[in-house]
Amino acid sequence: MTAELLILLIVIVTALAFDFTNGFHDTANAMATSIATGALRPRVAVALSAVLNLIGAFLSVAVAATVAKGIVQLDAVSGQALLIIVFAGLVGGILWNLLTWLFGLPSSSSHALFGGLIGASIAALGWGGVIWASGSDGVLTKIVLPAILAPIVAALVAAIGTWGVYRITRGVDQDKTTEGFRWGQIGSASLVSLAHGTNDAQKTMGVIFLALVAHGSLTKNDDMPLWVMAACAVAIAAGTYLGGWRIIRTLGKGLVEIDSPQGLAAESSSAAIILTSAHFGLPLSTTQTATGSILGSGLGKRAEVRWNVMGRMAVAWLLTLPLAGLAGAICWVIAHVIGGLAGVLVVFAILIALSVLIYLRSRRDPVDTGNVNEWPADTPDSAGDSRPAVNPVERATPVPANGAANGNPPAPELEQDRPRPSATTAPPTEISSGRTTRRG
After folding, report:
1. N or C: which end of the chain has fewer CB atoms below 10 A?
2. DSSP secondary structure string, 241-258?
3. CB within 8 A of 355, min separation 6: which ones?
4. Within 13 Å of residue 291, how many CA atoms lie on the same side as its CB?
5. Where are the residues of the annotated region Disordered (predicted)?
6. What is the 8-class DSSP label of residue 130?
7. Which contiguous run of DSSP H or E holds residue 63?
8. 309 within 8 A of 329, measured Cβ to Cβ
9. How far is CA 390 from the centre of its chain?
10. CA-CA distance, 255 to 301, in Å (whole number)?
11. What are phi and psi of 304, to 5 degrees?
């Protein structure tokens, strides 16, 4: 086995690892609202989403073509040099995905991947190594512009849809409305899962296709191999089934309180926008689309929006491309300085070590099916106000009226604190000289 073939295998494994992280990082896009409203039980939701992601991955390859041919100037680099660029970009994307998952931030896996590839390409080839704009193609047209428009359009569509839903059903019994819309949510969430598989699994397909072109196994005009499609479909489905509960909690409970009509409107708008973008080959951020839809559903209902949570999400969105790019550039520099297969193995070892550290850190504050619908509202900033946190033990422990608590001595009893006889209470008696006499 040659060193270049071994590097190709490592790149493919790393790409499938990114696809896996994409799955559990973005499960919330499809299922957070259905889990939050109780339309689906958590495990049933992620299982359904995994199956539909698997199916959706086979529906189109338009996005894969954009990723494979629309970011890196393929005429400027080839062979092992291109393989290392792709590898470094994947590592940058994985690390950003894991870091944002740790903090429960629904950032874009797509932009993490693109940022990593762009950063590695700039480090290796300079600014000219990236296709910034080429007619209707290029990073600015296919990635940056959709990133700006998608959440705005999704929020607008979801807000109008939510307002319309509540107007139409305002005279209907609330219990019947809730039950009916929960059934509707199952269908709309399924459609988002199908759309997610169609859009996001293709991005990893495009990266593997790019690696195969670099190795010489394919040319850039060849069709996507079936085994690549199948491997990516299985990887994203497996990651989806894992859950990604931290981000599900943020989208389902952290941004707005969601009712079933809102959930249906948000999921329907997300599905429509994601499927449309996949048809035109736009590698859209499903995370930003889903988040915009959930925000719009809250605005359409005039529900309380936790703008501090939305602010943290927006900051993560802005930082994803540059910081994932920085990580990709650093990984390329390390691999390039060491050189060849040894450099790739060192970066791969760094990836494994950092991934383990992030996972171990996440176990200090685990989120799973048991608490995914419990937003930590006892922290001042998560509820959108500045009220002090209340210790659950103090909340549950009764405090005596005289002030004795926490081991402190009771306060002296004052005259006004003593119980006084009521009008219906018999006056006290007095025993004197063996006779019982009554006062007054």
Report:
1. C
2. HH--HHHHHIIIIISB--
3. 94, 95, 98
4. 32
5. 369-440
6. B
7. helix 62-69
8. no
9. 28
10. 13
11. -70, 130
Q: What single DSSP character describes residue 225?
A: P
- Half-sphere exposure (CA, 13 Å, Cβ side) for 2? 6
Report helix, strand or coil for 49.
helix
**Contacts of the segment 221-226: beta carbons below 8 A, 24+ positions apart:** 224/61, 224/64
Residue 72 bridge partners (DSSP)? 130
| 337 CB-contact burial (10 Å; exposed 0-12 / middle 13-18 / buried 19+) | exposed
DSSP assignments along 336-386, one per residue:
HHH-HHHHHHHHHHHHHHHHHHHHHHHTTS---TTTTT---TTSTTTTTS-
Q: Within 10 A of 377 (CB to CB), how many other CB atoms are there?
A: 15
Which of 68, 70, 65 lies closest to 141, judged by CA? 70
* Token pair in block for residue 192: 């988002």
Buried b (16+ CB within 10 A) or exposed e, 132-157: eeeeeebbebbbbebbebbbebbbbb
CA 67 remoteness from chain centre: 22
Q: Could you give the 3-state DSSP secondary structure of residue 305?
A: strand
- Name the 3-class secondary structure at 402: coil
Mean residue pLDDT of the chain comes to: 80
Q: How far apart are the C-alpha atoms of 16 and 235, rounded to whole Å?
A: 6
Query: What is the C-alpha separation between 371 and 330, in angstroms, rounded?
Result: 37
Indicate if the pLDDT at residue 298 is higher than 70. yes
How many other C-beta atoms can be found within 10 angstroms of the C-beta atom of residue 354? Answer: 16
| Residue 108 CA from chain centroid, whole number | 8
The pTM for the full model equals 0.78
**CA-to-CA dists, residue 17 to 10, 21, 201, angstroms:** 10, 6, 12
Q: Which token pair is 381?
A: 């900033």
pLDDT band for position 135 (cuts 50, 70, 90) = low
Write out pLDDT tens, residues 64-121: 766 766 677 767 777 888 899 999 999 999 999 999 999 888 888 888 988 999 999 9
Say which DSSP state 128 is in: G
CB atoms within 10 A of CB 131: 20
Specify whether the CB–CB gap between 320 and 115 falls below 8 A: yes
Q: Evaluate if residue 402 carries a pLDDT over 80.
A: no
